[in-house]
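Quick illustration, no need to memorize.
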Amino acid sequence: MFRPTSRLSLALGAIAVSALSIVGANVTGPALAEDLAQKAAAKIAETGGAGHVVAQFDTANGFASRHPVLVGGEGLNDSTRARVARAVGAISGVGGVRWAESGLLAAGEMPIVNPLHCQDDVNGLLRARTIRFEGGSARIDAASNSLVDEVAAALRPCLGSIIAITGHTDNSGSAVGNLALSRERAAAVEAALVARGIPSDGLRARGVGSQFPVEGLEPGDPANRRIEFAVIATEPVLPTPVDTPGPR
């Protein structure tokens, strides 16, 4: 049975984790946007838009964004404008691209994205190591921060995919408690990835408790306490008119 002080401690801990996530997102979001802006400037120069087009990676409210607005280009022909837009849209990590004077984007050719290698890369990182948590809690152990950094780096090239984060436990404790703990741990990993610049709209956290132990292990084996990642959607594999950069 939880005492009132325990409930208060848990509530304060949740607030602290949320606050750290917000601070982390504010720190890493602008850095990611700046990196994408530099890559976009190089691509714009390569495709003939230098001095004519600028890619802005922020919103009207001044928040960093991975969905750039292309400004300028009035003196360029449609072929060059389309080439510039497609080049920016093809940069790994860039979301939907639009021109400042246009709400929708014309259809055009875009490279097909195959984000499945992200899952393979992450699985490779976690094959020999595990994201660990403090005993009986959803707080990520400090020793696992470097591994979370590596997971974020492995996911970053395939932003635009939908990644499921699934928390598992062993069968020690009650089924209800295990389910809740697995959900909290998956949510903690999601928050940690968002704090490292991975957009939250591409992450889906869930917990399944002890329902799915590792094949070959007893349900009570501590090795069942784990986080798994899976690509559950690979859009934009087939670009739509709204997603695909065009000349206008």
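Residues 166 and 228 are 5 Å apart (CA to CA).
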